[in-house]
Structure formats: C-alpha cells, structure tokens
Amino acid sequence: MKKLYIVTLLIAGLMGCSPSEEELLKAGIQQMDTQNWGEAIILFDRVLEINPANGTALNAKGAALFQEEKYEDAIPVFTAAIDADSASYKAWFNRGNANLKLENFKNAVSDYNMATLLDPAQTDIYYNRGLALLGMEEYEDAMLDFDAALRVEPNQALVHFNRGKAQLGNNDPGGAMQSLTEAINLDGKNAAAYYLMGVTRMSALGEAEKEEGCADLKMALQLGYTEAKTWIDDFCE
C-alpha cells in the first residue's frame, strides 16, 4: 500500500504542475522500472495527448501492455510506434515478440527480419526469430538462428533446448540428443529437456537406450513434467 500511495502522490503532483512531455515520459519509464505497468500506461497516454507521434512513448506503452500480457492490444501500439519512427529496431522487435506470443509466427518472422536489418548487432533477435521459425516448422532456418545466438553466448540452456527440438523436427535424433545434453548440463532442472531426451532415446534408439531413457523420463516426472508418466507406465514399469 505504501508504494501505491507514493505512486498516487507522484501522479497528482505531475497533474498539478502541468509537466512537460519529457517529464511525463521520464515518469512513465520510472514506473516501468518498478513494474507498475498500469501507472506507466497512464503516464504514456498523457505524453501522447501532447504528442501523438512520440515514438518512444508509443513503444514504451506497447511494452507495458505486453508485460500485462495484453498482446493483442500491444500490437497496434507498436505499429503506431513503427509509423512514428520506422528506423528504430525496437518497435519492430517488440511487435515481433507480441506476434510470437500470439503464435502469429509468420508475422513475427517478418518483424524480426526488419529488426535485424535495422540493427544486426541485437543478437536477442536471432533466438526469438528461431522460436518463430520453430513454430512454423522451418527447422533448418530455426537452427541457423539458434546457432547464431550460441555463437554470441554458448552457455544458453534454452537455446540448446530449442535447437534440440528443431533437430528432432529435422529428423536428427543424434544431434538433438547432443543439444539436449548441453541444455541439461547447463540447467539440471529443465524437465522438458529430460522428457525429450527420454522420448528420443526410446523412440530412436529403442532397447539399447531403454534404461537411460527411463531414467530421463523419471527425472522429468520428478521435476514436474507430468506427461512423462504415460511413457513410464507404458515402457518402464
């Protein structure tokens, strides 16, 4: 309650002294820093009343909506930010993230392509685009993006995990097991990685890997991956 009271005082003070566009924007970003998404949106809307074409405020408002999981609402706001400043990669990247959450994979890839074109140094784009390509079952292209992300930082458990999923989709169980092993070595609590490892061992390698596969599935179940129980009951008991 104390934090809410402070926020209320801040906004009341801003309203009383007719703050500038820059002051309102700064205050909104401060609310973003403390994860007060709703208060941030109120402040960004006040910025946009003064200047509807403020690309920074539009992008920040879209980001606040994204944090509130209002992905459909965020997309037109990011589009307006792009219209206001199409040369900045940020709104393209953020709209791609909203499209990814909504499983609009083709649109997400298109947005990530533009973001990469505008700023190739932003390596987070490669991983996210890889996820969108994975959703489209474009496995080889997804692996290229995951590889690009790993060249920047090799010790990313989730990248190795999703690379393994792409390899499975591309009918490369051996390569997938290597990637899943890397994921597990980096994050021993990744239940989904243990599950995929167990299923891959038993599906692709059969009896030769049954014991190890069952051990992986039991670890997945122990970590909370309930889908593993069916495999354990059918093949390991």
Automatic annotation (TrEMBL):
Any one cellular-component term (Gene Ontology): membrane
Family matches, as SMART domains: TPR
Segments annotated as TPR repeats: 21-54, 89-122, 123-156
One Pfam family, short name: TPR_1
Leader peptide range in chain numbering: none
A molecular-function term among this protein's GO annotations: molecular adaptor activity
Keywords annotated in UniProt: Repeat, TPR repeat
Gene3D superfamilies: Tetratricopeptide repeat domain
GO biological processes: post-translational protein targeting to endoplasmic reticulum membrane
Protein name (database record): Tetratricopeptide repeat protein
